[in-house]
Amino acid sequence: MRVYGVTGWKNAGKTGLVERLVAYLSARGLRVSTIKHAHHEFDVDADGTDSARHRAAGAGEVLIASARRFALMHELRGAPEPSLDALLAHLSPCDLVLVEGFKTARHPKIEAFRASEGHALMAPGDPSVRALAADAPITGMDRPVFHLDDTAAIAAFICADCGLAMPEPPTAAMAERS
Q1: Predicted structure pTM score
Q2: What span, in angstroms and rounded, lies between the C-alpha atoms of 100 and 90?
């Protein structure tokens, strides 16, 4: 399982880039999973549901399942936030895990950057940032710079950088044979 991150400051375009990369790579037959770091409290369960009631009663983990999906909710209850490695251990095998956030973790990353947001680049001080995806030209960088919307080039770079062969998209002839 290969791991590659998309990092950047708030409103830099990280989520949109991850979404486009997942769609692009999945359409080519790769199994892609994601991990998203949140800096705020969140809940994946609605108040009043049976599973929410189980958690409120004190369950450490609640797994809810249906014919379409399952979700495992793990309550930390004061324990430290798990590391990226600990979270990766919970994922099923796949070709690539795209990680959004986790700025300080040491996995390889591409930095999403919007000049209009006024933030400084992270890349110059972070060797784990292997390339940039920016909405404006960036000069003087010692690593590749892609346009933020050039999903194909960014996907190809990520695959090459982590040693993952990216298959060609299925053609109409291939689809007819299956």
Answers
A1: 0.86
A2: 16
